[in-house]
Amino acid sequence: MKKKFKTLSVLVLLILVSSCSSVRVAADYDKNAKFGEYKTFAFFKTGIDKAEISDLDKRRILRAIEAELLAKGFTKSENPDLLVSLFTKSQQRVNVYNNAWGYGGWGWGGFGPGWGWGWNNQPTVSTRTQGVLYVDLIDANKKELVWQGMGTGYLSQNMEKKEIRIKEFVSKIMEKYPPEAQQ
Q1: CA-CA 20 to 30 A from 158: which of 29, 139, 176, 179?
Q2: Element spanning 174, H or E
Q3: By three-state DSSP, how is residue 61 classified?
Q4: pTM score
Q5: Cis before 123? omega within 30
Q6: 141, 125 Cβ separation under 8 angstroms
Q7: What secondary structure letter does DSSP report for 50?
């Protein structure tokens, strides 16, 4: 019985950890594109300039994308096969928790009325910023979008964590390139 309980506990823990993935990703692509022929890339300045984020965050994202593409064997070029663009969206998520158990409140205890542990009617409110990063790969000759990766997750305002978070977003998105059907 103890062995079953331990196994069940470990299984539940694994499910919880895996279901709390910090970045959710998806990708879409042109099934007619010949991804094996793309060897070089450059950044599409016109598209990147339209992204509504700070220039510092743009540079962080572009450095992370460049590192991922170089690791995949691409070369940065003045005459590229692919143009890389990006687009971002963000929204504030407000969470209200009506967790009524807590410290405080006037009530009747074992020794009469007073303060102590018990029910608390004050909800807890927290806000977090949820961001979406789109990475677009455009066929440079045809000027057509051939692949788009999207990552969704919560953002950090802490500078050190922000750098790590951006790398995580980009890494998870770029895991989807090239599409498995074309490898």
Answers
A1: 176
A2: helix 159-174
A3: helix
A4: 0.71
A5: no
A6: no
A7: T
